[in-house]
Structures are given as structure tokens and as C-alpha cells.
Write the C-alpha cells for this entry.
Amino acid sequence: MEIDKKYRMLEGISQCVPANGAGEDENNLLQNFLPLRGYSKLADKRIFLITGGRGAGKTELFRILTSCGGLDHVMSQKDRRRYTNLGKSEFLVGYAARGPEAKVFPTSNVCDDLLKNEKTDHLSSFWGGLLCSVILREYGGEEKICQLADQYFAPSVTKSLQKSSSEISRWWRALDSEKEKWESFLDKADSFFKEKDLCVFLVYDELDQICSNYEDLFAFIRSLLDFWYRHNSRYTNLKAKIFLRTDLYNAKALRFVDSSKMGAYRFELNWNKAALYQLLVKRLANLGMEELVSYLKDVPELLREDENQILGYLPGDSEQAFEAFVAKMIGKYMGNTAKQGISYTWVPNHIQDANGEMAPRAFLKCFAFAAEDMLSHHDDISKLEADRLLLPTRLQGAVAKVSADRVQELTEDEYQWMKNLIVRLEKKTMLMNQEEFLGYLMPESWPEEERNKLPGKTNTEILDTLLTLGIVMKTTDGRINVPEIYLHGLGLKRKGGIKRPK
């Protein structure tokens, strides 16, 4: 293959993931989206909690549901036949912290102030009020909804819920003092939607941004889960889909109902090797580059024969085809023999966290970063044999970059406390005795003004958080280890670890 052609294809691979996130390219959202078989569970009205790690695709699904036709492109026709009672449905934003939808919801500092003045067990009125406001905004033109509003709310309250829902002070007292009124309003609204044969789903995302204090976060999340845990079986046509990070759901501070009670209402977003490669293939096929499409079609069964007009090219489901694709692009092994690793499993193995979870965003970035490095080292491209596009050494170097990228994501928002920890861990070597590692987690090591943002009051509680997040793990002999996806970003070393290419 000509070097110029490889150069153009490498430019395409480097663009397979938007700089601002795997699913956040609004101009190409559906063509980037991979509908997994497991997503059919979203059609189950009992499921109201969808959990997943960072970069697992929660926000992408949120946007598909709320702005791209609900379940239209999430489920295959085969799966649709399993849900014969789907009927008409609308997916409305129940809460979002960013983007144009966020303007109708209170800001984090407003929510901070609410908790300073109110008891956490009063937050059901907060979520009930926001639910009422969504219904009044979206269906306020319906005569029946207008009648219900007149029956249960004063005109000033109705106006505030419709026009000023982000200003809690305008409606909070009225709703919190008369809970039975907004509860009755929602009951009657649910009956109205049943008469219309319309199921209205409230979709919640970015709950980790609802307030600035980490501990207060759990009060809001707990009350929202409790609200829908109590109302999910009460309502027939008012339902919810709550997207929540797995680490927040598993955090001890949440203290919600036990997992056995939530099992029937929860769906976990998980990715396996085959699904990750399906996503990579779909992204490459839909970049609009004929060279890449031809390259992919040369591998039998890698792409489906029929192109979807809306979703674009779709990948096949043959794992043998994915293995053949990787062997063509990289080579069968990460070196001369299998001893250096099998290429097909190497990237998934090195981007999984301590809980064994793999994020598609990190996976895609491995290939994008590797392609960028190839483009900046022209001699590498001339070394490539036959149809190969990536050198294994560039993928190995990309893991270190993805690790730094992943840690930066963590420390930008609610895990800013980790920045101080990273300074103390820099250049330390793994594995590490637990006692030594706990020494770096002493709350006294943080500046006094930062200690209230720590996810625990003791070093063992902070360690529990790191274990829950999948950032660290305990070995069978009790030592602390860090997976590759976080090792380099934390400034740590491991004897015999990845050598970065020059």
C-alpha cells in the first residue's frame, strides 16, 4: 500500500474520537453511536437506573434518548418485537448540568444553599417540583394539565414552575409545605398520560455536578433514587431513566436500598472486547473516508452489507473478523512472538481498571493517540509492512497518554483532591505495602481548607473510595497495585512496565 494512502488513513484513525469525549460530537452523534444488544433493556419500564463508569457512554445514551428519537435507534427490530407493548413514548430531560437543557435547572451554588437551610429528607419536594415543572413546560398547552395545575397550585406557583424552575426560592416553600398537592398533581398527570397512551420518561444525567460539595452530592442522588424507587410502581406512564456513575452508586455514603432490592430496576453499562472493536470499526467506517471503508471491507464479515441511512455503516458481530482486522492493522503479536502479547487482547487488557471495567473512550483514544504519534514520526510509516497501519510500540506509548488523560478527567471536577495525592505519589514504584500507601492518604497531608472535600475522614475511608473507583486494587498478599490505565497518570512506576517509545 502506498505511503500517502497510509498517511491519510492514519489521519482518519487519529480523529476516531472527538477531543471533548467519545459521544459528544453533536454533528455526528448517530453515526458515532453503536447500539449494543444490551440497550434493549432500556425499553423495560421497570428499569430506571443506568449505571456505568467514566467514559462508558452514559451521556451519549442520554443524548440519543432525549434528542434523537428516544428508543428509535437504540433498539434493533428484532429486540423491538420482544417489547410488544412499547407504544408511544417521549423522553424529556429531568436534569442536566451542562448544555442548553441545563438553563431550566438550578445551578450547583443554588443547590448548595438549599442544603444549608433545609433537611436532606425534604429533598423529595425538590425532585417532585422539578418533575412538575417539566410536565408544565412540555404539556402546559393541554387543557387537562392546565385544569390540574389550577386545581393543585396557586397561579403564581404554576408560573414559577413553568417560567422560573431554576429559581428554587420561587416555588420551594409552596411545594414543600403542601406535598400532598404536588403528589396528587403527578398522580393525575400520570393518569392523563395513560389515557393518551403516552409513556413519558424523565431522563437524568450529570448528577455529579448538581452541587459543589462531594458529601452533599449523595443527599441529592439518594433522594432522587428514593423518589423513583417509591413512585416507579405507583406511576404507569410517568417513568424515569437515571444515568449515574457506578462509583457513586457503590459509594458507602449513598446508603440507599441494598442491591438485591435495586436489581430489578438497575442496568449496568458494560463493554467487552468484541463491543469495543465494533465501536472502533463503526467510527472508522463512518469518518467519510473511502480509503478506510475499503480497508475495512477487505476483511470478510467486518462490516454489514447493508448501510443504515441514519446510523451509517454498522459492524458485524464476528469476533474472528475483529481479530483478523487487528492482525491486518497491527500484526498478530505486539512483538515477534506471543510472548510480547496478542495484539487483539493487548489494548483491552491495558485499559481496564482495577474492577475489570473497560471504557470505550479510553479504548478509542489508544488508537487515536497511536495514530497521531505515527503521523509525527514519518519514518515509522515507511517501516510498516503490507497493509499495516500502526506499530505496536506506538500503541504502547499511547497507553501512557491515555492514562494521563484519564487521571486528568478525574481531577478536573469532584476529584480535585487527588491532585495533592499525585504530588506525593510521583515516581513511587508499584507494588506497594498497604501500610506505606495508607501513609500517603492521611487527611493531615492535605491543606486544611481542602479536607472537607475528601471522600472520607480517615485514610482507610479514602482508600475505600480509590478501591471503589477501580483506581487501585489489593493483591492476594495485601499489597496495593495500580492498573496501567491509572499508573502513568498518577506518576507511578512499575518494575518491568511499559517502555515508552522514543
